[in-house]
Amino acid sequence: MAFDYQYSLWGLKEGSVEWLRAKHEVHNQFAYRLQELCFHSGGIYIKLGQHIGQLEYIVPQEYVQTMRASMLKRCPVSSCDQVRSVFVKELGATREKFDPIPLASASLAQVHAAKTHDGEKSLCKGCLLSYARA
């Protein structure tokens, strides 16, 4: 990454229009690469990308904008089988009566509508799915 920055700015006068344009393009390129790396790695790395999106006082704007535009809106959704495996691993049993389509998804968890053993509606929330996403 450092080499790409150096190569892209090679021979350009610092502060010139061409230098600023090249620097902007390299920032955008690496912000996109970092975003894809966070999504590919999942879990805590998505959380890291979300944090980078809040560091506008220290990180270049291209990174902040890229992370804010994607990390808060594009969290992965785990499959119904992955959710069941987390139930088995964490609770020792499956919870068959939950809606397979999540109501919401975040970097480390997702929320499903469910029913309790006595048939009352409930939310299955806070289920950490980093095991299933790993």
UniProtKB/TrEMBL annotation:
Database matches in InterPro entries: ABC1_dom, Mito_struct-func_regulator
Tell me a GO cellular component.
mitochondrial inner membrane
Kindly state a single biological-process term from the GO annotations of this entry: lipid homeostasis
Residue intervals of the ABC1 atypical kinase-like domain: 71-121
Q: Which Pfam families match?
A: ABC1 (PF03109)
**What name is this protein filed under?**
ABC1 protein At2g40090 isoform X11
Q: Which organism is it from?
A: Phoenix dactylifera (Date palm)
Which gene is this protein's source? LOC103698679
